[in-house]
Amino acid sequence: MKDTPLLTLKGTYKKFGGLSAVDNLSLKISEGYIYGLIGPNGAGKTTIFNLITGVYPCTSGSILLDDVDLTPLKPYRIARLGISRTFQTIRLFPSMSTWEHVLIGQNFLSRSRIGEIFPIRRTQGLALRAQAEEALRILGLWEVRDRKAVTLPYGSQRKVEIARAIAAQPKLLLLDEPSAGMNIRETEELLSVISKIHDLGITILVIEHDMRVVMGVCDHIVVLNFGRKIAEGTPMEIRQNEEVLEAYLGKEE
Hints:
This protein has helices spanning 45-52, 75-81, 98-104, 118-138, 154-166, 184-199, 211-217, 235-239, 242-249, and strands spanning 5-16, 19-30, 34-38, 60-65, 68-69, 83-85, 172-176, 203-207, 220-225, 228-233. By secondary structure, the chain is α/β, with parallel strands linked by helices. The chain folds into two domains: 1-82 and 170-253, Rossmann fold, CATH 3.40.50; 98-168, no CATH class. The strands form two sheets. The chain has a six-stranded mixed sheet with strand order 6-7-8-3-9-10, with helices on both faces. It is globular and about 45 Å long. It starts with a strand and ends with a helix. Mean pLDDT is 88; it is low at 112-120.
């Protein structure tokens, strides 16, 4: 693990009309760790993911991946630099199998600049298929690879999204409420999956409401309220932070 920041947000703002959804946020994500991003509903968590991935432009401030400024870039260019994500609402293609979903996550990787020499392209294609197979096996989806993804149980559909994201070989994986809608058994499986993904050397930033997931896998947690960072630290530090407790539970009069 390295303490050199992989992702840096500097004085980042996002306004929708007169509302500041993200308010002067500065944040550093170091390579090799699992970070949690938590806060009450409407705190700005998913908006931050949309800013990082280029879905929304920043109102002001900057976002850097290594030393590259992401703020002027289109989403597909940001993906090519090594950021993958899942979404809060499942987004699958009705006609595609589980296997095809993972392969499509590698689409931009197959557009090689090496050249059009057939043996090289064939070798690259075999390598990508091997990586797609690894992603499916890590997520426990290999046996259902030929089934249409939308016919799988809800928890497995969530896993298809995660497999599609890691097949793109990201440096940084953004997981937006991956346990949403899962039962206890599926959530326990998810904890194991996140640990396996981390073991691949992928840095992870996860938005999550289930504190079992956050406290179970995260090395460092950032807490938002009304678009502002109100705390950050280890799970133990966050668990004992009075401002965090107030944001979630309210303050006694």
